[in-house]
Design brief:
single chain, mainly beta, about 50% strand, globular, 7-stranded mixed β-sheet, 11 strands
């Protein structure tokens, strides 16, 4: 299984970015796809998660600004990030948790597959 993120980069405060994550090598029929981030000197933070049916769950710090979605047929997840602030500067990771979840988990330990991470930098 391989997860590849794209869409990161640098943006000014107030701007938007859309991250994508493509999963390949999958044999699972049901799984959650989600996003985490880790900023400099900070712990890993759970951001947004979406199950096979498209039901989403968000971390408190981003629930009013970020939107997670997925194209299940294409094994792809997206994270639309709006109203970005310098505090959003971090490495963003895509992750997958296999299984028939009723509501996606938000703890990192339940996600067995991870992308390599992509940098998002927000300047003031």
């Amino acid at each position: 299984v391989q997860l590849v993120e794209s869409g990161g980069g640098s943006v000014q405060a107030g701007g938007s970015l859309k991250l994508s994550c493509v999963a390949s090598g999958f044999r699972y029929s049901a799984y959650c796809m989600g996003w985490f981030r880790q900023g400099p000197g900070k712990e890993r933070e759970a951001l947004a998660f979406v199950d096979k049916e498209g039901s989403a769950k968000y971390g408190d710090s981003v629930k009013d600004r970020f939107v997670v979605s997925r194209d299940t047929a294409q094994h792809t997840a997206y994270l639309q990030m709006n109203s970005l602030t310098p505090e959003d500067t971090a490495t963003y990771y895509c992750a997958v948790s296999a299984g028939h979840w009723v509501g996606c988990p938000i703890t990192a330990s339940t996600y067995g597959y991870w992308g390599q991470g992509i940098q998002v930098s927000v300047s003031s």
